[in-house]
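I had to read the description of the data format several times before I understood it. In essence, backbone conformation is discretised, so a fold becomes a row of integers matching the chain in length. I therefore recommend that a typical entry be quoted early in the introduction. For illustration, here is how one protein appears when written out as sequence plus structure tokens.

***
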Amino acid sequence: MTTRTETKADEIELGVYGEPQAGPSVPTTPGNGSTTTLDAATATGREVASLPPVNGGRAAWSFLIAATVIETVIFGIPFSIGVLHNYWATHMFPGDEATLTLAATLQTGLIYMTIAILGPILTAFPHLGRASQILGLIVSTLGFIASAFVTSAPQLIGTMGVMFPFASALYLPCATLLFEWFHKRRGMAGGILYSGTGLGGTIMPFIMDALLTRFGYKATMISVGVAYFVLNAIGLLFVRRRIPLPSRRGAVRPARQRIDWQVARSWAFWSGFLVLFLSSLGNFNPTLWMPTFADTVGATKPGGVALVSIMNAASVPGLLITGWLSDRFPAKVIVFFNCLIGALAALLPWGLGTSSAPLIVFSIVWGLTALSFSSLWTPLITRICQDDPALPGVIFAVFAFLRGIGNFTSGPVSTQLLKSGGFKGAVGAYGSTNFGPVLVYTAVTVFAAAIAGAFFPA
């Protein structure tokens, strides 16, 4: 039997299923062969085999590529919901705008909210991880394909609005297992993973629009649904744990993984909580309202839809750069400048933008900063968890819940702000449109996140 531990993360993982450890973290000396840890592992009837290398190697990169493909495919669908919403409203169910909007809004919001529910469950019962992924793949695929056969707008709520968000069960382990495979390069790896969202958001709307135009609705939904299933199923083959769980067939049944809720009393947790909450409140407004705003000010070259695509495209290098920087500088520094630049972009090029040129500048800067903020989830979670392997899934779930709040509230809040009118006599879009309050709200919430980030512990 080979008894080798390679990193402190290996020791931590072994300790979870053995005797209780002295605290949520262990000494940081790499390669510290802890006799206590090995004895604890042996006590469970578990054989400690040589583990794949961390921070690189074929297995690590296979996991990261597969997880990025899954992220691209899953989150590319919500980004193309605008194309589908327009098709539903103009070709299938005109006059059912409220129902169609609900179906479209539920999709993204429920993805975040179901992650918030699943995070603690899969943390406490990690053996359910693979089964939940398979279930999520099957239900979300059925929901997507079933939407090809709807005969009324309310049926879209059940298929695209409720069934498709089960994709969160497929996605969640991709994000949390990243903490096993990458340590020193964790920020960079997170940037690569989350760049799948930007890539999917850039290409999927054009793919959906082209397919709808050429082949019609039913053929498009069935073919995309089949492709969705195949790509995710292939990716799922390579998404696996680096540190295997104890066998459930042994003489000693592994205990439920314990969660140290003392983390909720730490300043790192609450400052991270504030950063995510405040940044999420304003983060969705530009992609939600840019098409309408561009029409209002007469910006047509490029138009609003193209400007949103520019944001998503800019977020791909933005996510990679942000992740790379987070491996080299404290998270608080990157959070502060990311949110500060995003807030200034909302106030200046968007707020003063009454033509295409400043709106292009805004779209690029916003994509590079605010839309790239998800790359900072990884270093924030790493600092909050303090090497406790039971916590990343829980903290990721909390972050997803806060993101879901931002998604659900952005529409109603910004709609009420639009009704309040603009700032008469003000320069740029502040005075010439009724978007002034939305611009200020977006900038203030993101700037408040920058201030909260400045107090995040190093």
Notes: Residues 75 and 197 are 5 Å apart (CA to CA).
